[in-house]
Specification:
This protein has 108 residues and is mainly alpha-helical. The chain has four helices and no strands.
Length: 108
């Protein structure tokens, strides 16, 4: 008999990674916009949508990849604690990332 616990998502780990990704997405978006050498110009009305989209993309990436996103190549030394995904948690990450990308690209 299949174990339903084995296929269930760890929604607490998903949401904590998502929140950390939101913060990282806002920081990366601010660096992209406000750096004078590398930054690009944007209309003042589009800033809020850009920051919301960047935060959603960051949250989606963090919730999908988990510790692998933050640890990078150091996983050879420190094994990441990967949390369980279900099809619903994967889909939530993908839909959130798509909506964020649409917000980033859309208001130009």
């Amino acid at each position: 008999m299949p174990n339903p616990e084995k296929n269930a998502a760890d929604w607490l780990a998903w949401s904590l990674q998502f929140l950390l990704g939101i913060v990282a997405g806002v920081i990366v978006g601010a660096v992209l916009i406000f750096r004078t050498r590398v930054g690009f110009s944007m209309q003042a009305g589009s800033l809020a949508a850009f920051f919301c989209g960047g935060s959603l993309v960051g949250g989606a990436l963090a919730s999908y990849y988990g510790d692998r996103l933050w640890l990078g190549h150091s996983t050879r030394v420190i094994a990441p604690n990967s949390f369980r995904h279900s099809s619903a948690s994967r889909m939530a990450s993908m839909v959130t990332g798509s909506a964020g990308a649409a917000l980033v690209v859309g208001p130009s």
